[in-house]
Queue: 4 jobs
Job 1
Amino acid sequence: MPITVPQRTAPITTPPRQDDNLGLNSERMRNALVARLRVQGIADERVLSAVQAIARHRFVDEALASRAYEDAALPIGHGQTISQPWIVARMIAAARNGKELGKVLEVGTGCGYQAAVLAGVAKEVYTIERIRALHELARTRLRPFRLPHVRLVFGDGMLGVPSAAPFDAIVVAAAGLSIPDALLGQLAIGARLIAPEGGARQRLVMIERTGAQSWVRTELEPVRFVPLQPGVLL
């Protein structure tokens, strides 16, 4: 069964401030981050507002908090990273395509940051993680944000969450040599999947489902992600 963040209805908001203890002015730094994303070509205001609402430093170790608003991927343990803010915004904006999103799927929860941003643009977010320790970490990191519409699932992300399909968008946070057929089958017609693909050389790809048995693939820019792996790690 999905593991959910506490079921209390509340808007997206940051928890009580602890920024002073870390020497951070989170609001100022988030505003500066959003300004940089605009310069870098992110034009979807709904996505930018979602990024601005989430304090990224709360999803990394305290030792890395001072780097949380750099446009860089940072380690979160277990050989995984929190994606750079630009790629998070880029993937979500591409998946959204200016549409209102109902149910979305994230493959690769990691520390929970991208799921929190997705919560600002979708009515319901399913996020699946194959590493048990990261699944538990994300649950801890997300809990103070009080996002009752985010559902955390422990499982093999390559299989998706068929019980909750179809999805209005799927965002994959790890690179496979090809896009799993199971994920393509869980897209709603008209929906988009955004994922990195490749091995040593990777590209971001966008796949839109155009019919019951038809998909259109578009290659976007070069990227670098951790590999997409099958199975689970307890």
Note: The first strand starts at residue 3 and ends at 4.
Job 2
Amino acid sequence: MDTHPTMPAQDRPKRSGIKLFLIVFSAVLVALLVAIMVARWWLFPSQLQPVELRASEKLELNHKLRALGYQQDAFPEVASAEALEPQAYSEDGASREVRFKERELNALLAKNTELASKLAIDLSDQLASARLVLPLDPDFPILGGQTLRMNAGLEVAFRERRPVIVLKGVSAWGVPLPNAWLGHLKNVDLVEKFGAQGGFWQAFADGVEHIEVRDGEVFVKLRE
């Protein structure tokens, strides 16, 4: 004979409703915690890790900078110990081609500026991208004391015998900014727009015979 008390029929829906509520509440709580963790990582990232070159890479970068006319080595700790000797100027046999690797550009930021942990450059086919993480002033409304994350992209190419530099866009916290906020310069060739006005963009275009951004590298050939 069964001696266990039978649950009244009217209590069964109540128990089922409580169980369903607990399941839904647990699912919502887990989703909320995951969302908070993702938002903390995505919206307020930690500072970037500066790029550190190996000794051979530092020496190679020193040579590239000297080829461009920079006599002061970026990394003097690996500079050649040879004494600097007087030398007559000559362009005979001089190469006008310069290649910089993505790691080299980021290492220069780490070495010579305060942007090492705030700015990073990425090079892919015909695209140069920059990532910026910037601590906000504590008095900034709502987000004071947090870290702003911004990304920007430039198309870099060479077409019709001239360099092409096009602003592809700027985003803040992963949200693309409106073209109006960018001065209506999105998807605009900056060389074509400003080159005719003289100044930097005209001088830049006149001095470049070829430019190309590849995966992890930028190549520039200068005019005579």
Note: The longest strand covers residues 147-159.
Job 3
Amino acid sequence: MPYRLDITQGEWPAEEFRKGVEGILAESMVLTLATAGPERGPHANLAFFAYDEDLVLYFVSERSTRHSLHLAEEARAAATVFLPPPVFGEQLRGVQLTGSACEAWGRQAEAALAAYQGRYPSFAQDPDVREQFLTGAGAAALYRLQVEELTAVDEPHFGRRNYLRATVLR
């Protein structure tokens, strides 16, 4: 396994916790990304995402967006991924993630593109578009969020209001 979860709050077998987190990520296609910058203040946006076996999340954004400008200033971000509950306040499933985030370059861009195309097969199939993402030549770029800590709630699997926190070890 490329990463391990060191559970810092809550009690659950680490492998079951890992499966729960990855299940939530697999069932949702959109994350909410939160960034902040000294001149632009806090900001949240939605982005389609992909992830890899090392718990790195990838998204695509234009460099001119507020969150991309924030990440160029400060490479820290938080994100949430959640699944709509069937009934208000019941059967909650989601994960809150924090870590370092930046534009992907070189091998990181290749990994980002592979993960993104694995999840969205029609993405960047045109060779020119693919090359723009790999070389950073276009207005849009591939970004990566390397998760360092997370909090998950998965009531169907972990019980009601059982928030589990973990540090990601690589």
Note: The mean pLDDT is 94.
Job 4
Amino acid sequence: MDSVIHHIKSLRLRDLTLFTVSAILLLDTLAAAAAVGASSIFWWLFLGIIFFIPFGLISAEMGTTYPEQGGIYAWVRDSFGGRWASRATWGYWVNTALWNPAIFILFAAVFSQLFIPDLALKWQIVLGIALSWIAVAINIITLEVGKWIPNIGAILKVVIFIAVIVGGLAYSQDHGMANQITFETLKPNWGEGMQYIPVIIYGMLGFELMCAGSDEIHEPAKNVPKAVLFSGLIIISLYTLGTAAILVAIPAQEINLVEGLMNTLYLFFGGSVWGDAFALCLGVAALFTFFSNGVTWSLGCNRAIAEAANEGEFPAFLGYEHKVLGTPVGAAITMGCVSTCVLVLYGLMAGSSEDLFWSLFSFSAVIALLPYIGMMLAFIKMRVSDGDRPRPFKVAGGMAIAGLCACSCIFVLCLSIVLFIYTPNEGMQWAVFIGAIAVLIIGEIVIRSAETRVVKPINAC
């Protein structure tokens, strides 16, 4: 006989804020954004206004009005039905399964840079596989314990960002600026920089992730909006100032997408025994934050797809939950298997850790952006069809402003998808396009194969 899963109320305001900072504030995309040049500062601020703020407001309204386990899955399901919800959840989950290898190979590359400079790519891949399965184990334990990985990761990210910002200011006083930050250079670059603009958008996603475990949140109506506000202020401030700090030190054309952070830390703080030791400590902290990124997204996405599987929208094994802890055992193990296969396959094709990181990042990012379009459409539909429902938090300004916020987000998301697939001055990125289409087709097959099975919750031992 199946028993009802009772989720433990583990997430308070502090946890939600740190969880969101851990999910959105990405050290791995900071160097990629800085590679745009000084105009990246404009893009952080401009996209913050037309995307980040509206996205945060919409996430707060949806998370407090519809605090259902599963987050995006539940919202799209209630708006457009199970099949569309499953498609959104597939994109949400498989992106993490594809992105985790990118973040873990970044961990391995920085680990090599710090401790074993000649570590071969194949051994970096082995390390990435090991990290994937450690993340699986953390997903299976209760959130009361697992939440400390993103909590500590978020604190360390803030420390590293502050160190980079302070170091950049000090460095510029003694050495001048590697990239001039003036009104002219801040103007957007519509040429070479366009290929990195989607990276900035990707670095703004994740407000909704906390809502995937709504049953595990203390007072969601009160705490979710506060967490969005507090984390949003921290994130946009540190992103903008951190990008400026890297540009102070390193010419934009010389920024390495994988090694850029450590190059900056050694440039700012190295040159003495204590300075090198401090830079090394920050590098070790950065390694933990890379790992915590993967864990944070896994915690949310595995819960979303487990909820969908338990409603019959995905194969039964994805819905296996621990009968005591309520954790997504089946989804976590499956994600570990997918991440392992992706690391091995891409490792055979990539020539360097930077090539591997960028290939995995671009490929997974296209898939990642699609569910958010579904979320915005669900927000509009719920405002129209369920407008009388009490909303503990509501986007101000009536339906006109709410629709404008959602449409602005949809436009930016669509533009980002196009720019990942078609790079100005380089042309069509066929590997990214074909890979994304293949993943969507696989998802359609998986979803349709599950529709014939009997729907009932499934619990693991």
Note: The longest strand covers residues 321-322.
